[in-house]
Design brief:
about 240 residues; 2 domains; 9 helices; about 55% helix; about 0% strand
Length: about 240
């Protein structure tokens, strides 16, 4: 049987995802975009292009409710998420806010699905998606090197949603570890392919990649063996501390 990555675009499954799985895809987009809407847009452009035939618009709308409940539960758990405080007001704290956020993503996904059939035979915007997710990784980890990583309560459960020091690009992409969802696994695999073809020649992206590798290994020293040979030669960059 062909693997997901070997199947033609838009033919990964013979039936739609269903409401529960669609909800899971919606909620997971917040994690993999790391809260950045431009990155989330690029994720949906990719998903619509590569897996568009598996989505059903009615199921997307039906998935908003359960996805909103899951998103609210995540936002209410400080081991998974800590709300940003602006002007003395803590954001993203109510179910209604969570539902509005999920509804917005459902609208975005549907819009990309409706415009995905442009005749191209490759996933939508993979180079732009790769660049965007590398940048958001560096944004969240770089400025917080001395303050404990991402904004969340400390947890001893590493490589989970509660890991404040997780570099998604390194762990799920370069190291090839599973996200637990075939669609996001395929996304990271395609990102690595894109990076190795073009991104490695972009000095800024290459620098951030090496810094993120060093950051990941600094907090997860036992993962050195997961690093592929092609990434081990990227050693010319300054220390991760110079983000």
């Amino acid at each position: 049987m062909a693997t997901l990555e070997q199947l033609p675009i838009n033919e990964a499954r013979s039936e739609s995802y269903g409401v529960s799985y669609t909800a899971r895809l919606l909620v997971s987009s917040f994690f993999f975009s790391q809260g950045k809407q431009p990155a989330q847009d690029k994720i949906w452009a990719y998903m619509a292009k590569k897996f568009g035939a598996n989505f059903d618009q009615d199921e997307i709308w039906q998935a908003v409710g359960p996805a909103a409940k899951a998103a609210f539960a995540i936002r209410s758990n400080e081991r998974l998420h800590q709300a940003v405080i602006r002007d003395g007001v803590q954001e993203d704290t109510t179910f209604e806010q969570a539902k509005n956020s999920v509804t917005k993503q459902a609208e975005k996904l549907i819009a990309f699905l409706e415009s995905a059939d442009d005749g191209s035979d490759k996933p939508g915007g993979i180079e732009e998606l790769t660049e965007s997710l590398i940048y958001v990784d560096a944004y969240h980890l770089g400025p917080h090197v001395n303050s404990g990583g991402r904004r969340r309560q400390r947890s001893d459960r590493v490589q989970t949603y509660s890991d404040g020091h997780l570099s998604q690009w390194v762990y799920f992409g370069i190291m090839g570890q599973s996200t637990g969802m075939p669609e996001y696994d395929a996304m990271f695999e395609d990102m690595v392919t894109s990076y190795r073809l073009t991104g490695v020649d972009d000095r800024t992206l290459a620098l951030k990649t090496v810094q993120l590798i060093e950051y990941q290994l600094h907090y997860h020293q036992d993962q050195a063996e997961l690093l592929p040979d092609w990434a081990k030669v990227l050693t010319w960059a300054p220390s991760y501390q110079k983000f």
